[in-house]
Amino acid sequence: MAERVKVTIDGISIEVDAGTTILNAARLIGGDIVPPAMCYYSKLEGSGGKCRTCLVKVSKGSDKDPRPMPKLIASCRTGVMDGMEVQNITSPEVVEARKGIVEMLLLNHPLDCPICDQAGECKLQDLGYEHGSEGTRYEFERRTFEKIDIGDKIQLHMTRCILCYRCVYVADQITDHREHGILGRGDASEISTYIEKAIDNDFSGNVIDVCPVGALTDKTFRFKNRVWFTKPVDAHCDCDKCSGKVTLWYKGEEVLRVTARKDVNGEVESFICNTCRFERKNTSEWTIEGPRKISHHSVISSNHYELANPPAVIRKNPALKEANIEEFERVTRH
Ligand code: SF4
Ligand code: FES
Question: Which top-level enzyme class is recorded in the Swiss-Prot or TrEMBL entry (predicted)?
Fold first, then answer.
């Protein structure tokens, strides 16, 4: 059995397996004390350590060596020690540093949320609201790039990319072969598909789900609707390539898009194949389970436009109990 160690984060103590990172220990506690993470993704090996949004202060190293760590550290890459004490939202230094990180991430990222498909699901948008300043001190021109088609279903808008590397890890670890990567260094870095070669394999669509911003978007959904006007419903099918467990995003009776299901940390529960994501947009191809529970923090939950009118698929399906409709309305109301 793994050795257990005690860590205290923002005054809340928890025992975790030795080797657990501070970020994952915080996720086990949950709530506001969980540091944001723009590049770490628990299902992608090697991810993390790039964006610095998860910085925290270690005010006590451990019971054996109680000295504080001299600098703020990336919680996604630092393991807990027995007796460690960590400050996240209780440290003014961390809050100030996070503000600086957000300002830096926004140096080149355009403020085009009103026309971006990721709006409402964008981690950078959330961070901007929580930590962003009203104006920018940046005096130079932002980097801009032409949009690039990665195959016929995915579009890369490099102008929005924050170089988190998640999509590169997906291509490396989830698909059969990788045909894109990050070229260049420093401010010359960019995602490249090596002369716009299409990523053509069954799991390439997962780059859309892991992208924390609107740099990689689903061309079958682009500009069709705002996510907060759509209704997420869990469904599954018998798929021979993936788990077949997805979320269908309805507008009225129409399935506008299909995504993997995301957990409380915004990570996919399991990666899905391109056939489920792009080809199965008819309700008849799915077994509907019920409304997707969406965090009340999400702008998607603020959908109160058609509360009295859940999709027929929810109303008519005998497998869905009355309670589900109530739950559907409850989660979309708050
Ligand atoms: S395209 Fe998206 S997922 Fe890929 S590195 Fe840029 S921000 Fe990250
Ligand atoms: S999430 Fe830790 S550095 Fe990006």
Answer: oxidoreductase
**Nearest listed ligand to the Cα of residue 54:** 2
The identity of residue 33, as a single letter, is: I
Do 211 and 285 fall into the same domain?
no
Q: Are residues 211 and 234 in the same domain?
A: no
218 in Cβ contact with 154 (< 8 Å): yes
Q: Which domain holds residue 67?
A: 4-102
pLDDT in tens, the chain (334 residues): 779 999 999 999 999 999 999 999 999 999 999 999 999 999 999 999 999 999 999 999 999 999 999 999 999 999 999 999 999 999 999 999 999 999 999 988 988 888 999 999 999 998 988 887 777 888 888 888 899 888 889 999 999 999 999 998 888 888 766 666 777 777 777 777 654 555 667 888 999 999 999 999 999 999 898 888 899 999 999 999 999 999 999 998 999 999 999 998 999 999 999 999 999 999 999 999 999 877 666 666 655 433 344 555 555 554 444 434 444 444 444 3
Pocket lining: 39 vs ligand 1, CB cutoff 6 Å: no
**How far apart are the CA of 249 and the centre of ligand 1, in A?**
23
Same domain as 234, residue 182? no
CATH of the domain at 39: 3.10.20.740
The rounded Å distance from CA 293 to ligand 1 centre is 26
Separation of 140 CA from ligand 1 center, angstroms? 23
In the chain, how many domains are there?
3
